[in-house]
Amino acid sequence: MTKARSTAVEQAEAYYDSPDADAFYFHVWGGEDIHIGMYENDDEPIVEASHRNDETLASMLEGLGPEHRVLDIGAGYGGAARHLAKTRGCHVTCVNISETQNRLNRELTQKAGLSGLIDVQYGDFENIPAEDKSFEFVWSQDAILHSGNRRRVLDEVKRVLKPGGEFIFTDPMQADGCPDGVLQPILDRIHLETLGSFGFYEKELAARGFEKIEVREMTHQLRRHYARVARELTDGYDRLSDIASRDYLDNMIKGLGHWVNGADKGYLAWGVMHYRLAK
Known about the structure:
Blueprint: H1 7-16, H2 19-29, H3 46-59, E1 69-73, H4 79-88, E2 91-96, H5 99-111, E3 118-122, E4 135-141, H6 150-160, E5 161-170, E6 173-174, H7 184-189, H8 198-207, E7 210-217, H9 219-235, H10 237-240, H11 246-264, E8 268-269, E9 271-277
Parallel strand pairs: 1-2, 1-4, 2-3, 4-5
Antiparallel strand pairs: 5-9, 6-8, 7-9
């Protein structure tokens, strides 16, 4: 029986379906990828750094190939799914709450000739539309923070993974030991009460029978990405105001500053988390 979605998921759907957000994330944040990039330097183009994120995670999944099924939860425009299908030949199911993003995902997937390997489904990660034990891998990039019930997301990941399957993901988080209240400007903007943390995920995944394969702490990339996006937005403000409202752009610049400030003060965390479900 499908359970009710959290308020945070409902708000995330409305936000990402909005014309302003769609224009911003596609034209500024990373194009086909709307997650945090992995940069070689502060001036590297956002798209290149975002693609490096895709390949870094893919390279950590040893043996991934055509015989495997991958579930991407919070798949956005599907850039990672197309990368996996093209380079590894695997079948990828994209689950995403924004039909605005899903429509473009389907279009880009068809243009790439990958429709036979990629399914795009409307849905959310608190109620994954998939059968039990139906995937060898679950993948997610910077999406789970938008859940108001992350424990339920992890329950769903466990449910759809086959025994011995792997879960690899990134998520903007708070640092373990972060003081209470200091992240309120960030939480208010994204309509959340909390963020996850490395410690939260390690504890909750262990309780569900997952074993840690590897965790890469890369918080400097979170700081670099938000600063890079803010610079891109500021430099292209006049041009971008033709496709998104100035109120939206002004609020985004302010919000990006909160993330950079939080990272500078050591309150935030980010990295790659890779776990395996026990057989």
